[in-house]
Amino acid sequence: RNSSQETFNLRGLVLCIFNSILPGVLILFLVFFAFLHCWLNAFAEMLRFADRMFYKDWWNSTSYANYYRTWNVVVHDWLYYYAYRDFLWFFGKKFRAAAMLSVFSVSAAVHEYVLSICFGFFYP
């Protein structure tokens, strides 16, 4: 169906969004399980890596801050030790919010860069 020739209506947009929610959440959970549970545990087993804490109980999070700390512990630990502490030293202890915003911005920029390389185009 050629949707570029149709006129815009709110009902069609809402139906399109609701039809995409369930497959999107299902794909999110499957990718999470496949990568953070299966793939990383397989490599940890092959390399005899003892620390298997790749994620914590992110499904019990009550805030976005707690969710971002628990859903990918590997990335969170790396960002904390190599980015946040340096930004905190640079900005000073009084400006913790600026350090957090800087780490979030750097993380977002790196994720956008990786996605643009994977998809072959950049769409801001």
From TrEMBL:
Pfam families linked: MBOAT
Record membrane topology: Multi-pass membrane protein
Catalysed conversion reaction: (9Z)-hexadecenoyl-CoA + cholesterol = cholesteryl (9Z)-hexadecenoate + CoA; (11Z)-octadecenoyl-CoA + cholesterol = cholesteryl (11Z)-octadecenoate + CoA; cholesterol + hexadecanoyl-CoA = cholesteryl hexadecanoate + CoA; (7Z)-octadecenoyl-CoA + cholesterol = cholesteryl (7Z)-octadecenoate + CoA
Protein keywords: Acyltransferase, Disulfide bond, Endoplasmic reticulum, Membrane, Phosphoprotein, Transferase, Transmembrane, Transmembrane helix
Superkingdom of source: Eukaryota
Location(s) in or outside the cell: Endoplasmic reticulum membrane
GO BP field: cholesterol efflux; cholesterol metabolic process
Molecular function (Gene Ontology), one example: cholesterol binding
Transmembrane segments: 12-44, 95-123
Family (UniProt): Belongs to the membrane-bound acyltransferase family. Sterol o-acyltransferase subfamily.
Name used for this protein in its record: Sterol O-acyltransferase 1
